[in-house]
């Protein structure tokens, strides 16, 4: 009876370890997306200049190549995972620093990724929307 309980415990441990490994691999992808989103938001708000964004995106591409090399053999070792985590930590710090360095983009979100994205969507505004600022009586207030 004791042997059966031990075997069951080992089987359950192996099952949960495999699930944790798969989840940690998903964590890398989720963090990549989150970091990419932070760069996009910084550019959109003007907190990150296009030059800074290009540098950060280059750094992110380097991390993605590191991930591809690590996964080439079909498994991600603890050492490879640690290197990727460290690189993502470094990128996260760099995004924070670039967002808070008091350099702002003069043209707002004029960054190549946004331009391509708008072209892909067709660049159309919803019907009735305008790109001109609202002033005077058409500013959203009702006149009395």
Instruction: Work out the helix count.
Output: 4
Give the DSSP E fraction (strand runs of 2 or more residues): under 5%
Number of strands: 0
Percentage of residues in helical conformation? 55-70%
Shape: elongated
Mean pLDDT: 75
Main structural class: mainly alpha
Radius of gyration: 24 Å
Uncertain residue segments: 17-23, 109-127, 129-144
Multimeric state:
single chain
Describe the biggest sheet? Answer: none
Order of helices and strands: HHHH
Distance between the termini: 86 Å
Using brief descriptors, characterize the structure shown.
144 residues; 4 helices; 0% strand; single chain; mainly alpha
Q: How would you describe this structure to a colleague?
A:
The structure is a single chain. With 144 residues, this protein is mainly alpha-helical. The chain has a domain at 25-104. Helix content is 68%, strand content 0%. It has helices at 2-45, 50-71, 78-99, 112-121. Helix 2 (50-71) packs antiparallel against helix 3. It is elongated. The model is unreliable at 17-23, 109-127 and 129-144 (pLDDT under 50).
